[in-house]
Amino acid sequence: MSIRLPGVVTQSHGLQRFMLLLGFGLVFLFVFVAIFAPWLAPYDFNADRAGGVVFGTQQGPSADHWFGTTVGGTDVLSRVIYGARTAVEVIVLAVVLSGVVGVPLGLVSGYLGGWLDRVLVLVMDALYAFPSLLLAIVVSIVLSGGNSSAFGGILAAAISITVVFVPQYYRVIRNATLSVKAEPYVDAAKVVGVRTPRILRKHIFSNVSSSLPVIGTLNASEAILTLAGLGFLGFGIEPSAAAEWGYDLNKALPDASSGVWWTGVFPGLAIVLIVLGATLVGESLNDILNPLLRTRGADTSEADQAEIEREFDTLRSAHGRPQAASLGPDTESKTESSEEKRVAALSLTDLAVSFRTDAGQVRAVKGISFDVAPGEVVAVVGESGSGKSVSSRAVLGLLPSTAEVSGSARLGDRDLLGLSNRSLRPLRGDRVSMVFQEPATALNPVYTVGWQIIEGLQAHRKISKKAARARAVELLEMVGMPDPEERVGYYPHQLSGGQKQRVVIAMAIACDPDVIIADEPTTALDVTVQASILELLLSLRERLGTAIVLITHNMGVVADMADRVVVMYRGSIVEQAPARELFATPRHPYTRALLDAVPHLGRSHGPGLVDPGNDVVLRVDDLVVEFPGRLGQPAFRAVDHVSLEIRKGEVLGLVGESGSGKSTVGRTAVGLQQPTSGTIDVSGHRVSGLSDRQLRTMRSRFGFVFQDPASSLNPRMSIGQCIAEPLHVQTDMTQSQIDTKVAELLDSVELGGGYAERFPHELSGGQRQRVSLARALSLDPDLLIADEPTSALDVSVQARVLELFGELQQRLQFACLFISHDLAVVDTLANRVAVMQHGRLVEIGDREQVLGHPQEEYTQRLIAAVPVPDPLEQARRRAARATIA
């Protein structure tokens, strides 16, 4: 069976192209007419006698006067043509003046904040409170007194419209600046000492300016309407100085009652067409100018897959594995085990999904088949782009209209594929439900969590609001939410990440579904929260007999939960087997390489201690960092009297749960956050308490690798520009020297100089993180802060990035503060480990002592919560935890 999901992609693309051409055609027409008006108009716009017509009489459209004449004998066509010149001149002046004034004010106000921001917001809000046409009339009266020249009248009209538009530019740019200035790539620029003017120009303006074409064209439309309104009301340009369509419409009013239609229709039609053209152009310009839409024939997922293949080739060679001729399906792995086949709660047969693109069909899922029995947990594993999430969304009919789906997905005895949204709606949330990867985006921020649970209940059950609320409280209690009676009335932003995930699970189990599809349910959670979520899912399986499809790339979670494992690669199933069998004797090369790439806490042979005689690079002494509380609330202490030091060539792993203060320590060390008290020294120089200007000359001593490689690189700058920026700011190198250095840095992270011209979105996650590492090392820093640098990467790519990181650290001997919540990763890299909880340093020591024989109870709980990629060992750890509990 093949199903083509409803969509109008081809038609909508053709319509979009037509509208774009129409918009540009209309704009070009009016600009052309405006430039060549004196040559195109058959008469002067103000001639009282045209072609011998007697003053006071009117002619309809004729060969001599195509658009007829006015009551004064002037040619309507000539006035429309000269009116186009007036309109274009006013549009250009008004839009340019508004942007020149409003954009810089918005940038400075949003970026600097403080009293300047408060004053400008007050002024702009006051201007915005006036009705726009009334404000334009007042300004026009003030400016136009006694000025009868054409240019003076046009300039006065443009300025009167500019006063109306400036607050619009200001507000849009200020709000965009407030958002962009919090992006990691702005912090990355600050770390290397980029001055404020360059940050505003290269990092803020380049990313907020994408909205300007749309604002400008929409304002152009509004400018025409405002100018016409001024002219119609008699406050526009002096009639003897220039032709203007609004004035012509005013004079055409008496004609309408006497059947003379042409004097009003043609100026009005001109207004409609130029507004339509400007609006259509504005809706298309952003797509044309946006470099994020450029591709080189492959999308990011293809780049991810290409890198994954390279990493697995390296891993297979390193572990002595034989290379397979193909990573295609392993047909032997698909055979049934010796267990008796059971009735499936969910059965996929030859499920295939492809997407229509401009470049042709992209096959995302290639005929996969597997079953899930009642009460069984089947883990679907693989890396980004393998088709895990696409296949699950196909089952629920949640794919976009560009998708084409074939095969079968049977829920019990009913095939879900081919059902309309109307037919699927009663099944979603009732018989089959989904736990989405990111709970923050799965929950509606404007409704309480209780309301959202109740909404799902009432969609499938005839139940009163009171009973539904009681059921919502019961569900929250079932998923382990503290104080469910109170928190049922909380909004999502009032809950932690783990609590939001519990709400999403409560919504998924509200109607006791037969099947739960859990898509990366623990990816963004700390290990202790993750452990509790896994316990919850397993308890639901035991109590309700629910079948669970667990989609994940975390092999520790798979070892902890799964009964069977389905391994996917590039849209195909390459192996499926019982969990213990797969971990013990993986048959496919991809599965073996995948398991080899997973770090295992306690089994790595990490580095030993460095020479105690090495110079101290980072010294943190009694550091306290507090953030002011909200109105009436005390300050929040994020870091509480922390002291530590890192020597040359040493990696200190800083671990702990979210909110423990790890990242705040790292940001304070490089001057991105000022300490409340305490001191920080880098290479013997005091950096705490210094202003950005005082720190600028010292910023070459430290680098910073951010958690998210996508957001830490400016999307409007090429890879070469991103890496070169520290060199431009901190050195006197020539451009040719910088280009040579960039090529060397790209080679050092195994990318090659050819990547310099690419943009961040054209690279995979692992490639982007390598670029971030190259940028951080461009100035040969003494200290490197790495804040969760591998948490967003697939395991194979993570393995190679960690290996590369270790090689560079050994060769360059920089001191490193490696911040992470992944204890297995820290175990492979760190010489020493420090553990933080609630802002305090609870334990610090060499790696083997802290991770192998922890002294503090919190550290012991943290280590016990880490799932390991071994089902037998994980079962023993789970039993030990249950005994302790």
TrEMBL record:
InterPro entries: AAA+_ATPase, ABC_Ni/Peptide_Import, ABC_transporter-like_ATP-bd, ABC_transporter-like_CS, MetI-like, MetI-like_sf, Oligopep_ABC_C, OppC_N. It is found in: Cell membrane; Membrane. Belongs to the binding-protein-dependent transport system permease family. Belongs to the ABC transporter superfamily. It is a multi-pass membrane protein; Peripheral membrane protein. Residues 331-341 have a biased composition (Basic and acidic residues). CDD domains: ABC_NikE_OppD_transporters, TM_PBP2. It comes from the Bacteria. GO terms for cellular component: plasma membrane. One of its GO terms (biological process) is transmembrane transport. The chain crosses the membrane at residues 20-41, 90-112, 119-143, 149-170, 260-281. The keyword Isomerase does not apply. The lineage of its organism: Bacteria, Bacillati, Actinomycetota, Actinomycetes, Propionibacteriales. This is Dipeptide ABC transporter ATP-binding protein. Residues 84-282 form the ABC transmembrane type-1 domain. Residues 314-341 are annotated as: Disordered. It comes from Aeromicrobium endophyticum. One of its GO terms (molecular function) is ATP hydrolysis activity. The keyword ATP-binding applies.
